[in-house]
Write a structure and sequence with these properties.
The chain is α+β, with helices and mostly antiparallel strands and 330 residues long. The chain has helices spanning 13-26, 51-54, 57-62, 100-113, 157-163, 168-173, 196-207, 221-235, 238-241, 287-294, 301-310, 313-317, 322-329, and strands at residues 2-5, 32-37, 42-45, 66-69, 77-79, 85-91, 119-121, 125-128, 131-141, 144-149, 216-217, 250-256, 259-268, 271-279. The mean pLDDT is 93. Its EC number is 6.3.1.20.
Length: 330
């Protein structure tokens, strides 16, 4: 059975992410949960991205845009109250991570009821008439997973390109000239116009397949105390959001179908002394664990080839394997 978590349309994304993580780790693990959230103007960077390189900091500061980092991988996104995000929180049955079809199908069916012909395309996008309306990402831990995605309902799309510094290679590889030309709002494609609140209620109705009563988890004061503490500890924490990029004297980066990988290294006397890896790839493992396995090794193609082949690289980088990583490094 699926249970709905009602966040009361809270627009503070640091609290929404904290609620999502709290549900993933603290609520009864034998249940599946669904939550929706909107937010004030916010830029969200993926778990493995270098925040300052993704943002137009001048625009962010002048327009009071919140910046935070999510647990899941993927690329940076700009959202405002015209976006409605969804999150499914469930058991990891071994066939869930990177299985975006499983978690987006209920949303696609609900959109179809409203006259919107959405398709799952590429790695993790929902599109209408070839334009993106949703990007999705996942996080897995301790046998649990959340799969969350945006739904661009009525977002100020002109702000998207102003708030972000998009990866030019990403758009060049798709033959697209700008962020604005690649995305569209769902509201433009509805058979009948509705507000975002009506849109959310209809999504809820169709995802729960017309049940008269939608089961709901009611958050207690004790729950909220823990959620607020988590938001302060992680999603509002400068070290989590921006982090500290180490000094480096070597950078190697490439884009693959599975995402961009960016190695920043400090190589001294032929050995990797410091290493930081950034990118919009989707891996289940903590990339910092991977980094630690390369520290101290000689920066030599044969040695690193052997090491990479001994590591389950797909665990950390999703569809990017040892061969692609070695090609990036050299």
């Amino acid at each position: 059975m699926m249970i709905y978590i009602n966040n009361r349309d809270l627009l503070d994304q640091t609290l929404n992410f904290a609620l999502e993580e709290y549900a993933l780790k603290q609520l009864p693990s034998d249940e599946t949960y669904l939550m929706f959230y909107r937010m004030a103007p916010t830029v969200i960077v993926g778990r493995n991205q270098n925040t300052v390189e993704e943002l137009n900091m001048d625009f962010i500061s002048k327009h009071d845009v919140t910046v935070t980092r999510r647990l899941s991988g993927g690329g940076a996104v700009y959202n405002d109250p015209g976006n409605l995000s969804f999150s499914f929180i469930a058991k990891d049955d071994g066939d869930s991570f990177n299985n975006y079809k499983k978690f987006t199908e209920p949303v696609i069916r609900a959109l179809a009821h409203m006259g919107v012909d959405a398709q799952l395309e590429g790695r993790n996008d929902l599109t209408v008439a070839g334009k993106k309306i949703s990007g999705n990402a996942q996080f897995v831990t301790q046998g649990r997973i959340f799969s969350h995605g945006t739904l661009l309902f009525d977002v100020d799309l002109d702000v998207v390109s102003k708030a972000l510094h998009p990866d030019k290679a990403k758009f060049e590889s798709k033959g697209i000239k700008s962020v604005r030309s690649r995305v569209t709002n769902i509201r433009e494609h509805l058979a009948k116009d509705r507000t975002i609140h009506q849109f959310k209620e209809e999504l809820l109705h169709y995802i729960f397949e017309g049940q008269d009563h939608v089961p709901e988890y009611r958050l207690t004061d004790q729950d909220w105390t823990k959620i607020i503490a988590l938001a302060n500890r992680r999603y509002r924490n400068w070290d989590w959001v921006y982090g500290k990029s180490p000094e480096f004297n070597l950078q190697k980066a490439r884009r693959f179908p599975g995402g961009r990988v960016d190695f920043r290294m400090n190589v001294k006397k032929g050995r990797i002394e410091k290493l930081a890896i950034f990118g919009d790839f989707f891996g289940a493992g903590d990339v910092h664990e991977f980094e630690r396995q390369l520290i101290g090794l000689k920066y030599d193609p044969n040695i690193l080839d052997q090491k990479l082949k001994a590591i389950d690289c797909h665990h950390y980088f999703g569809k990017i394997g040892a061969e692609e990583l070695l090609a990036t490094l050299f």
